[in-house]
Design brief:
The protein has nine helices and 26 strands. The chain has about 425 residues and is of the alpha+beta class. The strands form seven sheets. Strands 6, 7, 8, 13, 14, 16, 17 and 22 form an eight-stranded mixed β-sheet that branches. The protein is globular. The protein starts with 18 loop residues before the first strand and ends in a 5-residue tail after the last strand.
Amino acid sequence: MSFIPVAADSDFSVQNLPYGVFSTAQNSTHRIGVAIGDQVLDLSVIVHLFDGPELSDKNNVFLEPTLNKFMALGHLAWSEARKRIQELLCPDHRELRDNGELCSKAFVDMNAVTMHLPADIGDYTDFYSSREHATNVGTMFRGKDNALMPNWLHLPVGYHGRASSVVVSGTPIRRPNGQTRPNEAEPPVYGPCKLMDIELEMAFFTGPGNELGQPIPIEKAHEHIFGMVLMNDWSARDIQKWEYVPLGPFLGKNLGTSISPWVVPMEALMPFVCPNPVQEPKPLSYLQHSDPFSFDINLQVQIKPHEGKTASTVCKSNFKYMYWTMKQQLAHHTCTGCNIRPGDLLASGTISGPSEDSFGSLLELCWKGTKPIALDDGISRKFLQDNDEVIMTGYCQGDGYRVGFGECRGQILPANPV
């Protein structure tokens, strides 16, 4: 319970308490907040109340304009901060509740805030960890018998993305120009992407880093995972198809990646942990862990077409469908001794489930353009048109409460003139 009212269907229950970075019209300073109901608790105002053993001499991290320094403190500090915030919000705890002057400064109406990127993202890595998605895409381009590449069941496939074009929810995305080869009998052409797609993903922010040359063992990986966000990894499919051999995604993916502004702590997600998928063949020892680290997170994608009045649901999926876990992704990423840093972003890859309505990309939903996707009002899509808007949401359902992520939304703007 919280002395701040929270509706049963609110994403931001006291069991959640996600972190974000916000500003207001009255104060343009970027500062760290926690979402509770329809309010934002400004941690910069209550820094002095974090007086536990892990934070008493480090609570100035809540005066920072990003979460990086808080992320760097590690899981003991994260846990202490979370418990302290829950204590301060408890209806029976008077320290904050009965201080009217402090409350008036500390709580801000969520409708009055502007959200920003929660961290200074130094590096961004995108994985390819949904077996259903990899199988669907492989079947389209290589046939059912060769859908998965030989390495896919042995390691979490991934690539290094572009951190500079990761943007917060609500930021418009410009349709990219690039090289494509629509007719394989003719030379490539340059112009606007015609196959603009989405990818339903989730991502996690890393906490304390590791020294260059020192891997993070899988037994310790969870201590380096701060929390999760929703992600839309926009994809220019025709640009990607022409460019990706032999080095993989480049311009087809660097045009923009949208994330939700609120970072849900892993501690808030642990009540929704579920068994890991059965992995056959058994992974190599450095990727093995017996503790469950998959999560029951309900996910949804809606498209609001530019000529329509309503948003239509095109996908309902779940994070539990992922084949490779976050612990395996992080252990594999660092097995070479690659050094991660606080605020790095590691993404799941497209999340697709076993049924057609759970496919996490338009490429799959329209099956490479062969099946139109029905929207409301008689409208249909194969790929995105200019000024279409995409809204992604996700939440875990508890007994009378939710642990949610808010929204990850973005609108496609027309390409720049060629």
